[in-house]
Amino acid sequence: MPSRKPAAPAAAPLDAIDRQILAHLQKEGRITNAELSRRVGLSTASVLERVRKLERTGVVRGYAALVSPASVGLHCLAYVEVTLDRHVKATVRRFMNEITELEEVLECHHITGEADFLVKVTTRDIPAYEDFILHKLTALRDVRNLKTLIVLSTLKQETALPLTEAGEERR
Questions:
Q1: Are 91 and 142 in contact (CB under 8 A)?
Q2: Are 24 and 39 in contact (CB under 8 A)?
Q3: Residue 65 CA: distances (Å) to CA of 29, 30, 31, 62, 96
Q4: pLDDT confidence tier of residue 158, bands split at 50, 70 and 90
């Protein structure tokens, strides 16, 4: 089934320097090239060439500011298990196209198990979430059932991926 995201790049052969560069970029996306090159022990030209290759090959997909949800008035975070009427190609494709258009949806994953999709949603508050469910999510014609899990507090939230190779110990 087609996906709205680009195909994942094949696992790029990354050496230790590439992994160091990625680790620094994941923690500090606005690090200067000069500081990055100092930290990994290469010339600025070499580091810039490596970063551009990581971007060109899709290993680095982009850069973003991480915004505090509460600071912009978003106090409700929910995960919603969505079950479709029928799990066939046409309904799945239609749902995938429609769900990505809803601005409250931060993530949507096609999953295994009793539900078909797991959707991460943020809204201003519970009444806004109820409005989202009643007027947007259940308005999608193929949705049969929803199960909502409201986040009470977040203990850990990472954006950086672990970059160790199989068999390599983390330090």
A1: yes
A2: yes
A3: 8, 9, 13, 11, 26
A4: very high
CA dist list (Å): 5 to 1, 47, 100, 109 = 12, 28, 10, 11
Tell me the C-alpha distance between 85 and 22, whole Å: 42
How many Å apart are CA 101 and CA 71, to the nearest integer?
24
Residue 2: the pLDDT is 44
Q: Which two tokens stand for residue 157?
A: 């939230």
Q: Is the pLDDT of residue 168 over 70?
A: no
User: What number of helices (H) and strands (E) belong to the chain?
Assistant: 5, 4
Nearest residue to 74 (alpha-carbon basis) of 103, 37, 115, 110: 103
Residue 26's closest CA among 144, 117, 159? 159
Residue 164: the pLDDT is 81
